[in-house]
From TrEMBL:
Protein name as annotated: Uncharacterized protein
Source species, domain of life: Eukaryota
Species classification: Eukaryota, Metazoa, Spiralia, Lophotrochozoa, Platyhelminthes
Length: 202
């Protein structure tokens, strides 16, 4: 499998990995997307381009204050669930719009494109303890001001992924692969040159 080269490819890979992970078990899982609507739309457009069947759409929950772009594009066409997360409502109400006793599914993956402490607390109440949270980055002061909240995402088998760090690692991986490929090409060139010189000396 190729290494994802962009944030969108990395996020799509995480969602598809989640789909594959639960393909054989009985877990009715969901992935929560929230944050900037443009980022979410870019991710959805990319995923539909690589998975024309769109079967994964019913596993996605889009929580946003900007409902119109998603309703215009997806309402009545896809099984994607669109939830109003206007923060003028009470937190308990916002949480229940995603996860309530009436829902049988579990949220095992949450992707927040514009994290705030308030929204992260909400996600903590929704996301399974062993689930995965993905954010672009975190502010340094969050670790000191909200230590219990931030640490909770990596406890009990959970994963806390910061894309800035992940993509930096990916970039280094690609650089190493490129150098290895360049090194192998140079070795082949030197071997070919040496063989030619040997042939001429005979």
């Amino acid at each position: 499998m190729s290494v994802p080269s962009t944030e969108i490819e990395c996020l799509a890979s995480l969602i598809l990995d989640e789909e594959q992970l639960h393909a054989a078990d009985l877990v009715d899982w969901r992935a929560l997307l929230c944050g900037d609507w443009r980022d979410m739309m870019t991710l959805l457009d990319y995923m539909t381009s690589i998975r024309p069947s769109n079967s994964f759409m019913r596993k996605l929950i889009v929580a946003t204050e900007e409902l119109d772009p998603f309703i215009d594009k997806y309402f009545g066409k896809e099984d994607i669930r669109i939830v109003n997360w206007n923060e003028s409502a009470y937190e308990e109400e916002l949480i229940e719009r995603i996860r309530s006793p009436r829902q049988s599914y579990t949220v095992t993956l949450a992707i927040d494109f514009q994290p705030t402490p308030r929204r992260l607390r909400r996600i903590r109440a929704i996301l399974e303890k062993s689930g995965t949270l993905v954010i672009p980055h975190e502010l340094p002061e969050w670790r000191t001001r909200y230590p219990d909240l931030m640490q909770s995402f990596s406890k009990d088998g959970g994963r806390f992924i910061k894309l800035f760090e992940t993509m930096s690692t990916t970039s280094r991986t690609r650089e190493i692969e490129f150098r290895l490929q360049a090194g192998r090409a140079e070795c082949r060139r030197l071997y070919s040159f040496t063989d030619n010189m040997d042939d001429r000396g005979r």
